[in-house]
Write a structure and sequence with these properties.
alpha+beta, Pnp Oxidase, Chain A, 2 domains, 7-stranded antiparallel β-sheet, 7 strands
Amino acid sequence: MSTAATPLPDWLDTSHDVRDAAGLRARYDRVPTPASLFKECREIHPLYRRYIEASPFAVLATRGPNGLDTSPRGDAPGFVQVADAKTLLMPDRRGNDRIDSLRNVLHDPQVALQFLIPGVPEVLRVNGTARISASPALCERFAVDGKLPATVLVIAVNLVFFQCARAIKRSRLWDPAVQRDRAELPSPGEILQALEASFDGEAYDAALQARQNATLY
């Protein structure tokens, strides 16, 4: 009978883990190019502003007592307004009402954003700190069909730069030829019913599109 030990799955092997900055740098034989460094701005350059104003979609990263969180945000292009070279305004449109991101901002005001533009391979990244405003005048500024956001994030910008196109190119994110049929993946109702057997997933899916379309704002 063989007594050879069963090898660990590769992801459980910690013997090659990188544990310090020197070890990390040793794994990469290239250093950042000058362009990858001087593309950083401490405020919103007019050319970077054009990216923000063209973007209909952003990912908001926050950090709270339970760790990190990312949240998709989207609306018509320019839904995040540039108030000035150091300030962004982001309305909190209707969602699932968990308000995870906002509760995180109360805990830690540091935020990060990634702006995506359909068809454009570069991604714009913004870091800063945020506060939550319920100013009636500010919320009114973002009214759509008479419906106001409950709050607006006022983001003080401290770093802006573009991410190169490699990730978008590798993923073919904007290539219609690789778009998936929604029916290939589990529906929201199927997932919810799998997690809670008493939940009526079929009824949930049947009403989902109409409910979402009626509650976009």
